[in-house]
Design brief:
With 312 residues, the protein is α/β, with parallel strands linked by helices. Helix content is 48%, strand content 13%.
């Protein structure tokens, strides 16, 4: 069952991190205990050539695992397909994963500030930290895994980070990145089809999780910024923004509603039902990687669903 906020203000990642404690002691103490038990972070220059990778998000963990293959052990912190990532909280186990990592991959742009705090609590000069937002020079919308044109740059940056820790397998990491880029072909094709057939078509979304996708596809977003921001922050949108969204749907001024199923509130559920009654196609998207799927296939499937909703 998906988590739904009904009438209560959801708490953002940053606030939840401040509120969270780890059984009465801080993250630094948790990391220290875990490091003592495990003997400290592994040294990739000794023994088996396996890079220990932790990614804050499952989407980046998936990319790293595909690129690293047998020479990377990859774990992620946010990986619950039924949870709202904005409500993620840390614990001693997450602190231990970060403390043991040779490579840490974080999204940036405020989406995973909790990971930065965990890294600061367990500093290591052996660890490489890769911030995807810095790689792409991105700002604003943090949902960077929806940015199809940018994903090859991410893949190459991850391969470089792995190679820096394990130079002997650099060629394999580059080959893994090339395979990942090739796997994006169906996604690129779906985005190009939307852009060529429906450029400028008006759409709305409940929040901007798929914002990069609709921009890459050349669509025009009519959602009031205040409505999307309120949903993303876990608050109720203003009456004016609700009325504007109702007008977009009720008067069929948009050709599709892109609906984030992991940030469902009373307001978004009501809007989805209204779209169904009004004959506006609803395209359901998610914020985290569904079980059993890879990033490229997941995004291609969602892009094809949007293409179909717009008219094939």
């Amino acid at each position: 069952m998906r988590r739904v906020a009904t009438g209560r203000r959801r708490v953002t990642l940053r606030t939840m991190f401040v509120m969270k404690t780890v059984s009465g002691f801080g993250l630094g103490a948790a990391c220290a205990l875990l490091l003592a038990a495990c003997g400290g972070p592994p040294d990739p220059t000794k023994g088996a050539r396996v890079v220990n990778v932790v990614a804050a998000e499952d989407v980046w963990a998936d990319v790293a695992a595909q690129i690293g293959g047998a020479h990377a052990h990859v774990d992620s912190l946010i990986n619950d397909p039924n949870a709202d990532p904005h409500l993620f909280t840390t614990d001693a186990r997450a602190a231990g994963r970060v403390a043991r990592a040779n490579v840490a991959i974080v999204n940036g742009l405020g989406y995973d500030d909790f990971a930065r705090k965990l890294l600061d609590a367990a500093p290591s000069d052996r660890r490489r930290v890769l911030t995807i937002a810095h790689v792409l020079g991105a700002s604003g919308n943090p949902h960077l895994w929806y940015d199809a044109p940018a994903l090859p740059h991410v893949a190459r940056a991850i391969a470089d980070a792995l190679a820096a820790q394990d130079p002997r397998d650099a060629a394999g990491f580059r080959a893994g990145a090339a395979r990942f880029v090739e796997s994006l072909r169906p996604l690129r094709a779906a985005v190009a089809a939307i852009r060529s057939r429906h450029r400028g078509a008006p759409v709305a979304y409940t929040e901007r999780v798929a914002g990069y996708l609709v921009v890459a596809a050349g669509l025009r977003v009519l959602t009031p910024p205040g409505f999307a921001e309120a949903i993303e922050n876990g608050s109720e949108p203003s009456p004016d923004d609700v009325q504007r969204m109702d007008d977009l749907i009720g008067k069929r001024r948009v050709r599709a509603l892109v609906y984030n199923d992991q940030a469902a509130t009373t307001a978004t559920q009501r809007l989805r039902a209204f779209a169904d009654r009004s004959g506006v196609p609803v395209v359901t998207v998610t914020e985290t990687l569904p079980p059993g799927e890879h990033l490229a296939g997941w995004q291609a499937r969602q892009a094809r669903a949007l293409l179909e909703a717009l008219g094939g």
